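Query structure, 211 tokens:
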């Protein structure tokens, strides 16, 4: 778990509130939390989270529920966490969604700057013609990265830490199809792009980081 703490410390340096973390002794995210979350996203039940699949819709809803549970607010019009979009692949329309949650900054000067914390949650689905296990579960690529977003949100929420800059958490879909989700987000950002301070993206961070 020391790696998660390091991630959080780096994040809070960028938000202007690292001193608060140094005074915190309790760790609010456990290895069991992370194991449970990754095990669900990478389970056979979600069939490899291929873009456009019903399982991706289920995964998106689960992530949105976790964002809500750990204090992130919706930012899309109508009070939604979901940013929907569509693209064409192999002459078919693929409907997908990004999940976005926001935590407003506490510093009157810095709160109008946005620090992004991102990861993609899609994977490649099922391998056709595989002779044994055909589901590409995508635990490291990228359930682990996605669950790191949830872990950071939980740690901040339950510890009561107050970041200076505003944090925007985004779980992208469409990465395995050419970074479709992140490209759509940048072109249709719900916050001013000019005010984005930095982006910390978690990709294939390895399960050892959770120990």
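Result returned for the query:
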């Amino acid at each position: 778990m020391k790696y998660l703490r390091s991630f959080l410390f780096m994040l809070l340096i960028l938000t202007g509130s690292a001193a608060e973390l140094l005074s915190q002794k309790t760790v609010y995210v456990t290895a069991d939390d992370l194991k449970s979350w990754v095990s669900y996203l990478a389970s056979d039940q979600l069939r490899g989270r291929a873009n456009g699949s019903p399982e991706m819709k289920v995964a998106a809803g689960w992530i949105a529920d976790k964002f809500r549970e750990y204090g992130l607010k919706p930012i899309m019009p109508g009070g939604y966490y979901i940013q929907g979009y569509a693209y064409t692949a192999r002459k078919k329309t693929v409907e997908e969604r990004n999940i976005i949650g926001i935590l407003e900054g506490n510093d009157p000067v810095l709160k109008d700057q946005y620090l992004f914390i991102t990861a993609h949650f899609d994977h490649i689905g099922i391998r056709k013609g595989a002779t044994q296990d055909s589901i590409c579960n995508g635990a490291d690529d990228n359930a682990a990265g996605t669950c790191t977003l949830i872990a950071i949100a939980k740690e901040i929420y339950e510890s009561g830490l107050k970041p200076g800059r505003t944090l925007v958490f985004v779980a992208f879909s469409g990465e395995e199809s050419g970074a479709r989700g992140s490209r759509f987000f940048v072109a249709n950002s719900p916050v001013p792009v000019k005010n984005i301070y930095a982006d910390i993206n978690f990709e294939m961070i390895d399960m050892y980081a959770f120990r």
